[in-house]
Design goal:
The structure is a single chain. By secondary structure, the protein is α/β, with parallel strands linked by helices. The chain has a single domain, classed as Bacterial extracellular solute-binding protein, family 7 (D-Maltodextrin-Binding Protein, domain 2), CATH 3.40.190.170. Helices cover 49% and strands 18% of the residues. The chain has twelve helices and eleven strands. Strands 2-1-3-10-4 form a five-stranded mixed β-sheet, with helices on both faces. It has a four-stranded mixed β-sheet with strand order 8-5-9-11. The chain has a two-stranded parallel sheet with strand order 6-7. α2 runs antiparallel to α10 and α6 packs antiparallel against α11. The longest helix is centred in the C-terminal third of the chain and has 35 residues.
Length: 332
């Protein structure tokens, strides 16, 4: 009888211990709009790998690429509500929550990746992420989408005037709508998961994205002409739901923060090393690639100046001055 009691007690303790272990295991859903194989998704997968290793398996990250959990706007709502733990998305999207973020969508803001790194990893980028906390989000790091280029199904674009009249899909925010209007084209704001179908059905003529996104989303199947404009650089904020963040221990928070920073370095390296090869792939796929001549880029920059002036007022003069001061440091 005593032996039976001891066995029962041992079994009960084991079950209880298993229950505690299970309770301590947390699963994190991490969402993004890009397809598997895209450098951003590779960064997310690296993050998941680092987190699982550092936590000894107590923190597990499930990656949901390709808009599987809805649009960016839907993801933001889910993060705020605590039904989604993490997402990575264009930092400019957060302008609807904190107006300062709109500065990341200013055309021709960054001249090269080094400038972008110094700004987003420095006090300016960290300061903007801090402002998200009162909106229910915590910014952990910045990945990159990269420099955006223009595609369309109508004609090659060799000069700025060739853009006029095209119906272009844009990220749903005011700056992107205004810069397309400034070149006499017709902006059509659309969530990214709707883009391929809109292009395929000719509801829009073209769009603008970095080459990795054009390849990853197979836009080359529905777009003939690619013009290298590098008109905008997109940092991607890696954010976590504050509701979820506040349930974590200090050790768990450190694991996630460190993994985000480490995976961001890896992600940017992947993004930049892949760009040239991706461009070759797009050419082989049948896309006609045109590099916008320097004189035309200068004309495009001039057309963007009124857009930047208009949105300097809405973003806030102090934010714009702080950004320009950081860029000046980066260019020394």
């Amino acid at each position: 009888m005593q032996r039976f009691f001891l066995k029962t007690l041992v079994a009960a303790v084991a079950v209880a211990a298993f229950g505690v272990a299970q309770a301590q295991t947390r699963t994190i859903k991490f969402a993004n709009q890009n397809a598997k194989g895209h450098p951003i998704v590779m960064g997310m997968e690296k993050f998941a790998e680092i987190v699982e290793a550092k936590s000894g398996g107590k923190l597990k990250v499930n990656v949901f690429p390709g808009g599987a959990l809805g649009s960016d706007q839907a993801n933001v709502s889910s993060l705020q509500g605590g039904t989604l733990e993490m997402a990575s998305m264009n930092s400019g999207i957060f302008a609807s929550l904190v107006k300062d973020f709109a500065i990341y969508d200013f055309p021709f803001l960054f001249g090269n990746p080094k400038e972008a790194d110094m700004v987003v990893d420095g006090p300016f980028g960290q300061g903007l992420h801090k402002k998200l906390e009162e909106k229910g989000l915590v910014g952990l790091a910045y990945y990159e989408l990269g420099f955006r280029n223009l595609t369309n199904s109508k004609r090659p674009i060799a000069k700025v005037e060739d853009i006029a009249g095209l119906k272009l899909r844009v990220i749903p925010n005011p700056i992107n709508v205004d810069w397309v209007k400034a070149v006499d084209a017709n902006p059509t704001p659309l969530p990214f998961p709707e883009l391929y179908a809109a292009l395929e059905q000719k509801a829009v003529d073209g769009q603008e994205n970095p080459v990795a996104t054009i390849r990853g989303a197979k836009l080359f199947e529905v777009q003939k002409f690619l013009t290298l404009t590098n008109h905008q650089y997109n940092p991607q904020s890696v954010v976590i739901s504050k509701r979820f963040w506040d349930t974590l221990s200090a050790d768990e928070k450190k694991i996630l923060q460190d993994a985000a920073v480490e995976s961001a370095k890896f992600q940017r390296e992947q993004s930049r090393s892949a760009a040239a090869g991706i461009l070759d792939e797009l050419k082989k796929s049948g896309m006609q690639v045109t590099e916008l001549p320097a004189a035309e880029v200068a004309k495009l920059r001039d057309k963007m100046k009124p857009v930047i002036a208009k949105h300097t007022d809405s973003v806030g003069d102090a934010t714009v001055k702080a950004m320009m001061a950081e860029l000046e440091k980066a260019r020394r």
